[in-house]
Amino acid sequence: MKIEIPEAILLPSQDNLLQEEIEVTVKTFEEFIKLVSRGNVEEKLLQKQAKKLLKNYQKGTNEYRDVEGHFDFFESIDCWNSDWKFDPEDAEYFISEMIGEDLNFEYPEETYSHDLFPYIQSALEKHNLELMTYDTHGDNYLFFVANKNEVNRILELSELTKIEVNRL
User: I want to staple 30 with a disulfide (CB 3.0 to 4.6 A). Which of 50, 66, 67, 92 is the partner?
Assistant: First the structure.
């Protein structure tokens, strides 16, 4: 086609398409903890956990599971630590505890564990909530419930902080 682009026109390059490096600070971790706890965390504990997470982050390891007590802060929020295989009744009970009200959901008979996720998510969606998990890299799940409108920000902060959180 022999089209020539004038030199005055700047073409995008990989360099100017990449986001600027974002500094991870204690405020980043505070925001993350507030979101995964749905704001249900005491200020003193929030600050303590955020400082601890930042310190671990600054150790230079790319994976928190290499740091002792890598998901201790989840113990300070409403979460559910479960074996990889769980019954629907367990899910209903523990999720009800996390959200502070009864959660019941319909599911086909003989449905267990990860096959329950679509049914759980449908029931939580009615409350504008979503079930998420911290990746323990083990044979268990560490579940928490997030506000639906904050899930994308949680995932962004997860990527920034290297705390592996997943949608289900």
Answer: 50
